[in-house]
Design goal:
alpha+beta; 6-stranded mixed beta sheet; 16 strands; 12% helix; globular; transmembrane
Length: 366
């Protein structure tokens, strides 16, 4: 075997061994507030982690590198976005930081006026937040079509590496009790976003927060009927599991094709938007008061351990690995809900793009 090939083989073997020594992010489980300073401090492969997980009043500023996010209600949630202005998700996915609507989590605050519409859905198995945003106000390039962030990634350390999400949505009314969302997905880009966190005690958290459909975006991973300019909280049925649809009386599973085959130009089914109920409409000025007073000042530190979390009055009950081939499987009979198109979504975010290594295939036609 040529020497150069041997070196390549050894490097590949070393990377494989290193990956095997790292505990997957989804296996790192914590009871709030007992989190380490860094969940992923290992200087291996893509590591160490860019920011930190112990976030408190000393880290609460517009340069905070806190990587512990909270998703509690329509007026209290966080998104993942870059730490440095004019960045793309593809280039920074491993190092995104938490941007939140409240100034009680030790993070950066989403600036006032950035959110242009938000829909919060509480379902039996997950919380879903979709919306429209001026992404330049959270350090994203104006034309960045973005991509998917999730707790997996090529090395299973997550995008961002070490990023944690907690929620009080499953605490039976105790707004000061937080549960770690092990499985979640967050698409950012095209001045829109969708975020889904799955109840770890639910029926299928890995299924509802599936991360293998990174190329087909929000409309297939987090279908909604949200509207720009509207701020709405609803209860909702579960969606069909991402990738599943009914054809000929049988449930069929769609797998997106590998990136090597080029852009996805067709998807064999129309997304089903779940039925919603008990909807309440808000004014953005009433629910994002912290954002309206945000200033970009101070520098981030991570000392102390006093964590601040205010109870919310409106609390409601990356590099993903693509599977090879565009195949499908059939299972037992299942009913299909009435389907709707999602006309409000920017086409590029509906399509989705892959992070890890670059901005890749976009759905050209839906």
């Amino acid at each position: 075997m040529p020497a150069t090939l041997s070196i390549v083989s050894l490097v590949g073997l070393a990377a494989t061994v290193a990956a095997q020594t790292l505990t997957p992010l989804t296996d790192k489980k914590y009871t709030w507030p007992n989190v380490p300073y860094q969940v992923s401090p290992e200087a291996i492969l893509r590591g160490p982690q860019f920011g930190f997980n112990i976030c408190n009043s000393t880290t609460q500023n517009q340069e905070s590198n806190c990587q512990t996010a909270f998703v509690n209600s329509i007026d209290d949630f966080c998104l993942w976005a870059p730490a440095t202005p004019n960045s793309s998700i593809a280039d920074t996915e491993a190092a995104e930081v938490a941007w939140c609507t409240k100034n009680t989590h030790g993070t950066r605050v989403i600036p006032g006026g950035a959110l242009k519409g938000v829909q919060y859905l509480a379902t039996p198995d997950y919380i879903q937040i979709t919306g429209f945003i001026d992404q330049t106000q959270i350090n994203m390039q104006s034309g960045d079509e973005g991509g998917e962030l999730d707790p997996h990634g090529a090395d299973e350390q997550g995008n961002p590496i070490g990023g944690l999400i907690f929620s009080n949505a499953w605490s039976n009314g105790n707004n000061n009790s937080f549960t770690q969302a092990i499985e979640w997905t967050n698409f950012m880009g095209g001045n829109a976003f969708c975020l889904k966190i799955c109840n770890p005690a639910g029926t299928n958290p890995a299924g509802y927060c599936q991360h293998i459909y990174d190329r087909i975006g929000c409309s297939y991973n987090a279908p909604s009927s949200n509207t720009a300019g509207q701020f709405l909280k609803c209860d909702s049925d579960n969606m069909e599991l991402p990738g599943q649809y009914v054809s000929g009386g049988a449930t069929v599973t769609y797998y997106q094709p590998p990136e090597s085959l080029g852009p996805i130009t067709t998807v064999p089914y129309t997304v089903a938007i779940p039925k919603s109920s008990n909807c309440v409409t808000y004014q953005s000025s009433d629910i994002y008061s912290a954002a309206s007073t945000t200033s970009a000042a101070a520098t981030a530190t991570a000392t102390g351990s006093t964590v601040l979390h205010a109870a919310s009055a409106s609390n409601a009950s990356s590099g993903s690995a693509s599977r090879s081939g565009a195949s499908s499987t059939s299972t037992a009979n299942a009913s299909l809900r009435n389907t709707q198109t999602v006309s409000a979504w920017p086409a590029a975010l509906m399509a989705g793009v892959v992070g890890f290594g670059g901005l890749l295939g976009v759905v050209a036609a839906l």
